[in-house]
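anyone seen this seq b4? input:
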Amino acid sequence: MDVAGFEFNGYSRGGPVFNHSDGVKGNLSLGGELQKFRLGNEGDNGIEVNFARSFEAGGVKWKVNYMPAKWGSGDISTEQAYVEMSGLSFSPEAKFWVGQRRLRIQDVHIVDYFLLNYGDNVGAGVTDVPIGGMKLGLGVFSGDKFDGNLPDNVKAHRLNVDLSEINTNPNGKLRVLLTAVGGKNQVNGGSGSGISLMHTQKDFLLSGVSNTLYLQGSRGHARIDGEFEAIDGTRPGRRSTRIADAINWQSGPFGGQALIGYQTNKTDLTNVETKDFSLGGRGSYAFSRNFKALAEVSTTTRKGTGPDQRLSKVTLAAALAMNEDFWSRPELRLYVTKANWNQAAAVANAATFGANGKTSRTLVGVQYEIWW
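predicted toks r here
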């Protein structure tokens, strides 16, 4: 909704899980950032509501933005609170901002993870600066947030450079995100750096198919997605690499998304290394304008911390939606999830879904998901 400069948008999901035990209603994952295939596997309730007011004064455009959020039994948090200005004479397209802002670039929806993301801390920056046929974004951040600061003796700062809209080939664009981190009183030094390359190809092989390839690496106290890594002064950084590919499609009533990814993480000082593999996809088929069938299948592995772990999941769901499209929301779902894992995964997750040596679970529930 955008009325007289007032914007109201947000996201929410929730619903009951009828068949569960040990308090486990979802979150069946080996812990990798691309390993929680989310359909019938969330079991949580929450809402994020974004309020914004835009106005113009002296030829300059202003925007005030605030986003509170409430998830589960936790307190209401501040996700975003910032002011933005644009329309300046020397660069009309550039948007300058100060505050705490989400700068989420690209996610893979079926695992609920933004692979490129450099917001969430208090900072200042500019986006959408046109330079030589591409766009530039810059952000400088402290380690603080509206809801809490770092300990007094611990400091952290971060610089991000975001280059987007780089034309590489017909229907293909490249995006580059650079990260540099510094700090004081961090474990094993406070520095870090990272680079992410993302290439998106529209009409990939067939019309209506989009493919995105990710190549990423980071070290120290820079996280692989572009944010901070372990800056509370009690934990070391890590060295990470990732290669992933996500494909999206919609052909008539049939739509979906699939992902394959491989990531390595080596913790500084201890040199403990994990190697995570993910493969899965979700498809939707619309039998009518407002009724769809959903299916999600995935398999994930984690190596490096004891015996190899494996977890596989299948979810079938019936959904009511606004239209036939895969991305149509709101969506109401009745789902059945069947997951199984090996003994190594049960031992590693004995405090949660592997309690009492279980190696399989079935979840049945109803969920709504909405964004507006």
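The longest strand covers residues 273-288. DSSP finds one helix and 22 strands in the chain. kinda curious what u guys think
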